[in-house]
Amino acid sequence: MKLNSHFAKLCLFSVSSIAPLVHAGISFEAKAASEAFYRGIQEADVNWQSSLELGFGDFYLGAWGLSPEEGRSAPDLFNERYEIYTGYGWALADLVGLDVGAIRGLDPHDDEFTEAYVGLYAEFGTIAPSIYIYNDIDTDQWTAEAEATLSVPLNLFPIDTTARLGLIDGDVDYSYFEVDLVYPIRLGDLAKLSLGLHYTDNDFGIGVPDNSLYGSASVRLNF
């Protein structure tokens, strides 16, 4: 994920609130997952993730980390991953916004990277679509990712469904498709528990698993 998850691409100025933030905000999330994927490629088996995000008006910055619980030795060789990111968002219309920013990837066992991105996001009732373009400044790899989230506010069983399609243009060209089903449980005014079921698929080729189904649980605090 970067920010898969979630990296939460929109961070503190989410599509659920296009209006600019008046005051600074802080958000912290801790997640446990049975697997982790970044753009369709497996990053870990059982793992822990955490993120911290700060927003100041339309400006935001944050940090995200992934720690594998297993699979650190051969043949998997999963490693920790860390990312810091910053960006700025503009409201282009009542329901549409523009997001630009940069990501710095820090991997203790691999090459670091710097990525710039620009995206459009919107909210139309219960549907929140977005499209983002990423460019790795070091390798000139390009990624295009389109996403749409449908929030169904059922009284007893609300569910957020996200579908995501990505195209990679780099040393290896491939595409990936992901679906997230998330059941949110509000824990008061400032906290939320999310239980997720996720599916991912890719056409990377021989040597890379092409699909997986896995689960996650996370707690998010907003201040």
TrEMBL record:
Keyword annotations from UniProtKB, A to Z: Signal
Keyword presence, Signal: yes
- For the keyword Signal, the answer is yes
Query: Which top-level group of life is the source organism from?
Result: Bacteria
What does UniProt give as the signal peptide span?
1-24
Protein name in the entry? Copper resistance protein B
Protein's organism: Pelagicoccus mobilis
